[in-house]
């Protein structure tokens, strides 16, 4: 078993929706009628928590629904996800936040709706964050767009600080990102594709960090993709900014070289970057500069992806493959769980119901992770309603075996039942 307090050998007994007993080394007596889930060779851990999932409902049901997206999440070992608010309509009101929560009743994991920072994500006026916070929203973001207006971002941080919630920014300065559809560099010139420069992210990261220091507000930076962005976070944190930052599995594992075949499955914002950036992100995840891995799970139907590279919608699937991708980076399992479970749970205000530690009385939101399990990714076999996985045909090492949500075994690997 692994949680924030350490790693040890133990049996875990779940009764109802809580952890009833954790053995101190030896096996627990099996109560009559108990269901046994085999965790031999694997690790029992607090369920994974995703800060960044596009579940597409309401309005984008051709790409994903809350039902299919949370099934993908549960299969990936997640017990909680933050649903991004760039739906149609956008989650800019209590009504849409309530609708998402209603649709998530009976889902296979907890769904925490995020609200928008600005009304309709239009970037002009602040959304009513207070009424959405009253419904349970804890993270506010215009994700898909950065908040371009600096004065509006300052007011959003001040307002969020008073409400005790977090503003999470998608850092891309629009005039610099412009119509770029891949990382700007020698390769984009070679391929004849307009570039999206690293600096389009970095200028907004620097601006947001300065505003976080000015306001004292909590700031979360979404899907950082460059070495300089991470360096800026480290410096601002040392100077007192209350900032957390996430990175996606694809920015940790994939590089801009993949765009050479013009396959739109590799189009994403921010774009896949150079090898040097990718290595810096992995190092920053290992040394604590980055706080969380967040999937940016972004399902798209075929008609949005089977077009020219520049016309394709940005984004890729991530929930079912995230653990396998991150497990392949060579970090200690304790660190992998820190950035995929208890740290994101804390950022979203989902702790301690999610993220552990696994102790008697704690809600039984658990996963069993098999870090040695080899499997080949097939988009057609994923639970998502969409197929746009960048790992098609790749072998991953590491997979969730079972997932328990509120004590219910919502995912049980068939071959491991006994
Ligand atoms: Zn984004």
Provide a descriptive summary of the structure in words:
- The protein is α/β, with parallel strands linked by helices.
- The protein has a single domain (46-356), classed as Metal-dependent hydrolases (TIM Barrel, Alpha-Beta Barrel).
- The chain has 13 helices and 18 strands.
- The strands form six sheets. The chain has a five-stranded parallel beta sheet with strand order 9-10-13-14-15.
- Helix 4 packs across helix 7 (198-215) and helix 7 packs parallel to helix 8 (227-238).
- The longest helix is centred in the middle third of the chain and has 18 residues, at 198-215.
- It is globular and about 65 Å long.
- Zinc ion (ZN) binds at residues 143-144, 170, 222-223.
Record the SSE blueprint.
Layout: E1 2-3, E2 6-7, E3 12-15, E4 18-22, E5 43-46, E6 48-53, H1 66-75, E7 78-83, H2 94-103, E8 110-113, H3 129-134, E9 139-140, H4 150-163, E10 166-169, H5 174-177, E11 182-183, H6 186-191, E12 195-196, H7 198-215, E13 218-221, H8 227-238, E14 242-247, H9 249-253, H10 275-287, E15 292-293, H11 302-305, H12 322-327, H13 333-347, E16 366-376, E17 395-405, E18 408-412
Parallel strand pairs: 6-7, 7-8, 9-10, 10-13, 11-12, 13-14, 14-15
Antiparallel strand pairs: 1-2, 3-4, 5-16, 16-17, 17-18
The structure holds zinc ion.
